[in-house]
Amino acid sequence: MKIVIIFHSVCGNTYLMAQEFYNAFKEKKQNVEMYRVEDSTLDKTAQIFAPAQDFLTEIKKISVAAPQVMENADLILLGSPTYFGNVSGQMKLFMDATSPLWIKGKFIGKKLLAFASAGNSEGGGDLCLQAINVYGQHMGMLNVSVPSNIKPGITVPAYGILHYSGNGSVRPDKNKLAIAEMVNYLLLS
Ligand SMILES: Cc1cc2nc3c(=O)[nH]c(=O)nc-3n(C[C@H](O)[C@H](O)[C@H](O)COP(=O)(O)O)c2cc1C
After folding, report:
1. Which residue's CA lies nearest to atom 22 of ligand 1?
2. Closest ligand 1 atom to 9 CA
3. What residues flank ligand 1, with Cβ below 6 Å?
4. Domain total for the chain?
5. What are 87-122's pLDDT values in tens digits?
6. Rounded to the nearest 10 degrees, what angle do helices 89-97 and 125-139 cross at?
7. What's the pTM value of the predicted model, to 2 decimals?
8. CATH code of residue 60
9. Which of 58, 61, 118, 189 has its Cα between 20 and 30 A from that of 15?
10. Which domain holds residue 34?
11. What is the mean pLDDT of residues 173-184?
């Protein structure tokens, strides 16, 4: 199975989630690649937010995804920060840039898992996940939902893996997000 993880991140949280997924798939000896979406304003936006300084250099080292990287994948993970109850503009631009492949039906039948970071639980992070899922439905993908019993003791949205960063500086905890459990589930389903 070929797995491709594509994310957008400025303050580093969605990047760290992508990294945790990447590491968990690697531990399972999977064929996995990780990319970021193009962000022509990354340096400028990063100047506004203090937490963005922590991972800016690391993020910039990740290869930028062309839409074609999804073409040979069986499982795709798309991750975005929540911007005004939606995906970021940069993630939306990436999605829209895949339309030549959508027209050719290149993504039909591929599995898709959404993940997102949001400031707080009232901020619409679930809407961001849903925006990714709606994109997947338009592409003819098979959206993977998160089972309610993915990990005893934690509650999770069905729509994808969601992290809350507070003012941007509360970093994702792979245990609280059940990343390993979700990877196991993805590999079994
Ligand atoms: C332009 C902008 C809009 C945002 N809108 C929301 C929002 O609607 N709801 C929310 O909970 N957080 C919102 N946030 C906060 C981010 O979703 C949050 O800091 C997230 O952890 C950033 O992800 P990143 O660290 O991967 O960049 C917004 C941040 C920015 C810069």
Report:
1. 81
2. 26
3. 9-15, 81-85, 117-120, 123-125, 165, 168
4. 1
5. 999 999 999 999 999 999 999 999 999 999 999 999
6. 0
7. 0.98
8. 3.40.50.360
9. 189
10. 2-188
11. 97
